[in-house]
């Protein structure tokens, strides 16, 4: 379950990263085709392309994460709002590979510019601050990891 949906990220280009503000250090990677929104967003801090469109593939990361390249750590979720700025380097890059590891469904996403995004599924149990570690929307389906070892796939409406 979920492997096929994760594989749908491979070959897709990131055209926006929605990060910062009140939800930091959580962020959304927006990939693939631009799909017109039924109701455009009104947030003036977002670029017009994102206000008018969704990505055909979107990954929302709630858990702890790290952006790295080779032996360098470029940014982490522990840096607060300043930490999300380096995620902008993913815009215009293509996803080369996605690995997902049980039992908590940590992700390792490799991009065409040599950068890697690694998530650490740290939301566990009924008292977790958020009930998901990450969420993926693609191909009319929704995949949620967490809390803990839960991985759930559903059809979108």
Summarize it:
With 157 residues, this protein is mainly beta.
Task: Describe the protein.
The protein is mainly beta and 157 residues long. It has one domain (3-155). It has two helices and eleven strands, in the order αββαβββββββββ. The strands form two sheets. It has a six-stranded antiparallel sheet with strand order 1-2-3-9-10-11. A five-stranded antiparallel sheet has the order 5-4-8-7-6. A hairpin with a 3-residue loop joins β7 and β8. The model has no long low-confidence stretch (mean pLDDT 89).
- Taken as a percent bin, the fraction of beta residues is 35-45%
Number of helical stretches of at least 4 residues: 2
Give Rg in angstroms. 15 Å
- Topology as a string of helices (H) and strands (E): HEEHEEEEEEEEE
Mean pLDDT over the full residue set: 89
Shape: globular
* Order of adjacent strands in the largest pleated sheet: 1-2-3-9-10-11
- Give the tally of β-strands: 11
Percentage of residues in helical conformation: under 10%
Structural class: mainly beta
What kind of sheet is the major sheet?
6 strands, antiparallel
Poorly predicted segments: none
